[in-house]
Amino acid sequence: MRMDNNRTRRRDMQFAAFAASAAIVTFFLVYWFIQIQDTREMLKMAYG
Question: DSSP states of 1-48 as a string?
């Protein structure tokens, strides 16, 4: 019984770590995309 509890706890921890990592990577990808768009817009305003 205790071994099943440890397995379940480990699986939950791994899923939580995966979800947190995916959220962080997604945030940085969106941030990077927005920064590139803003840079292109400023370059277009500066050079036409």
Answer: -HHHHHHHHHHHHHHHHHHHHHHHHHHHHHHHHHHHHHHHHHHHHHH-
